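ok posting inputs for the manganese (III) ion job
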Amino acid sequence: MTHKLPPLPYALSALEPHIEAHSLSVHHGKHHAAYVEALNLALEGAPEQLQGRPAHWLLLNLDQVPENIRDTVRNNAGGHLNHSTFWQSMSPGAGVEVNGALGNAIDHAFGSMAKFKSDFEEAGTKVFGSGWVWLVKSPNGDDTLRILTTTGHDNPITQGFYPLLVNDVWEHAYYLQYENRRAEYLKGWWSVANWKEAGRRLARAGYQADLPSKGDAEELLVASKKSGDSAVARPSLVR
Ligand code: MN3
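and the output
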């Protein structure tokens, strides 16, 4: 399988004014594209059984990736998967009501939507260097929602958490528009946060099945999660 850059699920200008078309174009068409390209390049000489594997499988099975390409695969499969999830975490005009099970789960875990948002913003602001801030569902049948942060391109699936919503806090995500004002970027991001997608993910998060053949983040399942993989850094648990 050759990994492919997924098309954005909306027009380049659809997230304006929070994310301008030029900024989105560079982020998707240059940064994400570069991770996909580097992943394909790294896998060119890899054992054949790795070449048909989607990004999430590679991240969950890094011990099966030859050591000489393991870091490259980890970084770029992570970059590919994280960005694929990130594009889905946003939607034009999606910053509306959070309803039903998702709203209840957020109230239960954080006390209120306002508290969740401020905790999420604070966690994102505190990520040192490049990283991500996530709303995830806990592993092992625990329905509790948590906020996690990861650095580099690590993804919470490697610790069994299921991502519902993610924001990219690498400088390349906001610097063209917001310069060093990450907190402002995080605060404004709620105007494009895709609650519908987060709710859909919550509804399926307990679903257990064999990993799909499709390499799409859309089909990302937690069933083959391997705990204690020493090659993978633990995400920071915020709450
Ligand atoms: Mn990015």
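notes: The beta strands are 131-137, 145-151, 162-168, 236-237. The domain at 20-239 is CATH 3.55.40.20 (minor pseudopilin epsh fold).
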